[in-house]
Design brief:
The protein has eight helices and seven strands. By secondary structure, the protein is an alpha/beta fold. The chain has one domain: Rossmann fold. The model has no long low-confidence stretch (mean pLDDT 92). The structure holds adenosine monophosphate.
């Protein structure tokens, strides 16, 4: 059965790290809308041109644009056996669009990684990305694990922008938890524990979602 996972959580909760790990272990693509947008900005494509200023302010790119990006990505062959979504959906409109994109053949597991605000601000201020390809670096790494490029701070990881992003998350993205929370495939995960423990909780949530579907 295909493995479909949505990872929710505020900026800095460890969504990207956990999504990447899960994707590698299960052999499915990790689809991060933030990474797709940062790459588009790097190469200066039309998408990047439209998204750049909005991203730098910490606000959200329009639902129409994001839904189009994800629809196109999910149609690619490698997503047939499943996927992990990181950073999408971010609004209820995006979640409704995602539901319409999926058939009933496999469940959609949804995990919400919870971390206290002060821990998030501290984590984000030390986060680094690759200046060549935009990839998020492994914490503590000296260079990019993907292309070996040098690391820089994300412009939107500046503390004032981080506070703004957390506010936007609370306003626009928290309603997503209400959208999903009554589903048997939804689980909250404590993100303030070791990466291994978070990964184990996510694996258990996905196993429960698959069992519930059989
Ligand atoms: P992230 O790397 O997930 O924190 O995303 C970085 C920035 O990209 C966000 O602050 C938004 O400006 C934009 N972005 C990424 N994913 C989405 C989405 N699903 N909807 C709207 N904007 C997004």
């Amino acid at each position: 059965m295909a493995v479909r996972l949505v990872v929710l959580g505020p900026p800095g909760a460890g969504k990207g790290t956990q999504a990447e790990r899960f994707a590698r272990e299960r052999g499915v693509p990790k689809i991060s809308t933030g990474d797709i947008l940062r790459e588009a900005v790097q190469i200066g494509s039309e998408l990047g041109r439209q998204a750049k200023a909005v991203m730098e302010s910490g606000r959200l790119v329009s639902d129409d644009l994001m839904i189009g990006v994800v629809r196109e990505r999910l149609e690619r062959n490698d997503a047939r056996r499943g996927f992990v979504l990181d950073g999408f959906p971010r609004t209820v409109t995006q979640a409704q669009a995602l539901d319409r994109m999926l058939d009933e053949e496999a469940p959609l597991a949804v995990v919400d990684i919870e971390v206290p605000e002060e821990a998030l601000v501290a984590r984000l201020s030390t986060r680094r990305i690759c200046k060549s390809c935009g990839w998020t670096a492994v914490p503590g790494a000296a260079s990019c694990s993907r292309c070996g490029g040098g690391l820089v701070q994300r412009r939107d990881d500046d503390e004032a922008v981080v506070r703004e992003r957390l506010k936007i998350y609370a306003k626009d993205t928290q309603p997503l938890v209400d959208y999903y929370h009554k589903r048997p495939t939804f689980r909250c995960v404590d993100g303030d524990q070791s990466p291994d423990a978070v990964a184990a909780d996510i694996a258990a949530a996905v196993a429960a979602a698959v069992r519930g579907h059989e």
